[in-house]
Specification:
The complex is a heterodimer. Chain A is mainly β. Helix content of chain A is 5%, strand content 45%. Chain B is an alpha+beta fold. In chain B, a hairpin with a 4-residue loop joins strand 2 (18-20) and strand 3 (25-29). Classes of the chains: A mainly beta, B alpha+beta. At the A-B interface, loops of A face strand 1 of B.
């Protein structure tokens, strides 16, 4: 891929400077973020910090977490390249290209070495999960709702999630649950661990098998989203603030789920937002509860949109001048 | 903000909350990035079991037993004050 500098726009919750702007106010209209200026590979967000991973393996951090200096120091000392990021409430997980995981932030300092190479890492509020190259799933953090398998307890060191009957391809985490997906081109199986207190009927509604052809999956704190190759977006779980896909969505190219809202990039290149938008993170307008419910807002930015990401009431749009879209109806 | 079921974002067990002994509050992450808070006094008194987020309209209900809470420090203070020196006892006896 030709290297190019992306412009990142951000909106939503900003009390800790997590949007990377020149101020600390919440905003509902996208503003240019200091996360711009390189080619963005991935953005992950915790409660009050945003992490950006560039294509060349460097990490930039915005917001107050207290551990940005640790990350910078580690990476500059040993010239590690980062392959993927995830974040819990106030810690950051860096999956290095070597397959090792570096964890830093409050309550955790150290390096984890797991025997097999790690191919994928993801986190939600209080737990992290990795997929190993052999298809096993290992996790750590708060497992009291069964999100790390049995026994349901706090897991201080990485432990394998037992009871998985298929090889994992991708994992996504909600606040109190973990959802494992098998290879999309084979069986398309799905397994969910936790939550024990299932207030929004996830166990009831989530299929045990997803029709082959899922392109991507994502989770907000209480909901699961499945994006199919044809652009259809399925959603299960919490919908009290309109978190689930509204009716009649146009074909979707990419999905990002924040804590209680979604950002979608349509195949026509437009950005849509819906869900809990009290902090401006779904744009305008919202209803009297601050929600975009049963409908969506279209969010406009200059330049073409390359990717969307979302955090805790924050929304981030990666743009570039060098994009051509495949088209499709708006 | 009135408490109605719609405003209750979640029910959280106190074991999942973090206790700040300096501020004497329990807190838990809110999806907006701030934290739901409830004071130890409120929980002890049974005044309210609702945790409020300072930055948004969401609230949580805290699930707990009063016996789970830290014991008040004033009980220890009372025991110490009861112990008098021999001199004090003698002077009291003299007055009586």
């Amino acid at each position: 891929m030709a290297s190019h500098n992306d412009t990142v726009f951000a909106f939503g919750s900003n009390g800790s400077g997590q949007l990377g702007l020149s101020h600390f106010e919440d905003i509902s209209t996208p503003e240019q973020s200091s996360l711009s200026g390189c080619t963005v590979k991935q953005i992950a967000a915790g409660g009050n910090h945003t992490l950006m991973l560039s294509e060349d393996g460097n990490v930039k951090l915005q917001g107050d977490d207290g551990h940005d200096q640790t990350i910078v120091r580690y990476l500059s000392e040993v010239d590690w390249r980062v392959a993927q990021l995830s974040a819990t409430w106030n810690a950051s997980m860096l999956l290095l290209q070597s397959g090792k995981v570096l964890v830093c932030g409050e309550g955790q300092n150290g390096e984890l070495g797991l025997g097999s190479e790690i191919s994928h890492i993801t986190s939600c509020m209080a737990h992290s999960v990795t997929v190993l190259s052999n298809g096993e799933v290992w996790g750590w953090g708060n497992g009291r709702q069964g999100q790390l398998g049995e026994p349901a307890e706090i897991v201080w060191s990485p432990r394998q999630i037992q009871g998985l009957t298929f090889s994992a391809a991708k994992v996504v985490c909600g606040k109190d649950f973990t959802c494992v997906f098998g290879n999309r081109r084979e069986s398309g199986q799905v397994a969910m661990f936790g939550p024990k207190r299932d207030r929004f009927d996830l166990h009831l509604n989530l299929p045990s098998m997803v029709v082959p052809g899922w392109k991507d999956v994502a989770t907000s704190w209480g909901s699961i989203y499945i994006l199919r190759d044809d652009g259809e977006l399925l959603g299960f779980g919490r919908n009290d603030h309109g978190q689930l896909p509204p009716p009649d969505l146009p074909p979707i190219e990419a999905i990002a789920a924040g804590s209680e809202h979604c950002l979608a990039l349509t195949k026509a290149g437009k950005v849509l937002a819906w869900g809990w938008g009290e902090h401006g993170n779904c744009g305008e307008p919202t209803d009297s509860n601050g929600d975009v419910k049963g409908r969506w807002n279209e969010v406009e930015v200059p330049y073409s949109v390359r990717a969307v990401f979302a955090g805790c009431a924050t929304s981030l749009i990666v743009t570039s001048a060098h994009i051509e879209h495949s088209g499709g109806q708006g | 903000m009135a408490t109605s079921e719609e405003n209750i974002y979640d029910e959280i067990e106190i074991e999942d909350m973090t206790y700040d002994s300096t501020l004497q509050i329990y807190h838990y992450p809110c999806p907006c990035g701030d934290r739901f808070e409830i004071s130890l006094d409120d929980l002890r008194d049974g005044e309210t079991d609702i945790g409020i987020c300072p930055s948004c309209s969401l609230q949580i209900r805290v699930i707990y037993e009063v016996d789970d809470l830290p014991k008040p420090e004033s009980e220890q203070g009372k025991r110490e004050a009861v112990t008098m020196s021999d001199q004090q006892v003698a002077s009291l006896a003299a007055v009586a």
